[in-house]
Design a protein that fits this description.
It is a single chain. With 208 residues, this protein is of the alpha/beta class. The chain contains 8 helices and 6 strands, in the order H-H-E-H-E-H-E-H-E-H-E-H-H-E. Strand 3, helix 5 and strand 4 form a beta-alpha-beta unit. The chain is globular and about 50 Å long. The model has no long low-confidence stretch (mean pLDDT 94).
Length: 208
């Protein structure tokens, strides 16, 4: 890892170095050129790192993905588990489209470059067996996927969400528009009641 060199303080700005992030994540943010938090990151990260539930109103491109990934990765690194089984992710990120799921996976690989965390992306429309094999090949830390494929694998017994510690629902309003409400409820019921839940949405109507 590179030596950590915090940027100079600036009034009214929160530095990533001011947060209690794992050093591996700090090094990755430095490589990515992240110095000062965006507004949504500054508001979310302290609560997310503390393990609190949160709902955040944020447009695409405001840095929300880095906010929930940096906090969840820090938690996983600070609390490693040895008693684990394959097909049982510690973090589940629900996304409305495969394009967004793939982008989340790419961002997770970038932020996790100095870690041994295993990130996986699954989505419908292609290679059902190949993605299932990837799911069962190794212990998965962060699983990003679309609701339909998540339900497919959980119903077949290949995906076990009973020990998942963190649930992230990204672009919740798009999920609602695309008719995923019942799927999200079905998935959430499979997770432990004692968990951290983070929800991100561009709009926050009552249904969300």
């Amino acid at each position: 890892m590179p030596e950590l060199t915090p940027p100079p303080p600036e009034e009214g700005k929160l530095r990533f170095s001011d947060l209690e992030l794992a050093k591996e994540i700090m090094a990755a943010t430095q490589d990515l050129g992240f110095k000062y938090c965006t507004e949504i990151q500054a508001k979310c990260l302290p609560h997310a790192i503390a393990g609190r539930d949160l709902a955040a109103k944020a447009q695409t491109g405001t840095g929300k993905t880095a906010a929930f990934l940096a906090s969840t990765m820090t938690r996983l690194l600070n609390d490693p588990l040895t008693d684990r089984k394959k097909g049982a992710p510690r973090v589940l990120v629900l996304a409305p489209t495969r394009e967004l799921a793939l982008q989340i996976g790419k961002d997770a690989d970038g932020l996790g470059k100095y870690t041994a965390l295993n990130n996986l992306v699954i989505f419908g429309g292609m290679d059902h067996k190949g993605q299932r094999d990837d799911l069962l090949q190794d212990q998965v830390d962060i699983l990003a996927g679309t609701p339909g494929r998540i339900i497919d694998y959980s119903r077949s017994g290949d995906l076990d969400l009973s020990r998942t510690e963190i649930l992230v629902i990204d672009e919740a309003d798009r999920m609602l528009d695309m008719g995923f409400y019942n799927d999200i409820i079905t998935i959430a019921k499979q997770l432990p009641k004692k968990r951290q839940t983070m929800l991100f949405s561009a709009t926050m109507p009552e249904e969300i």
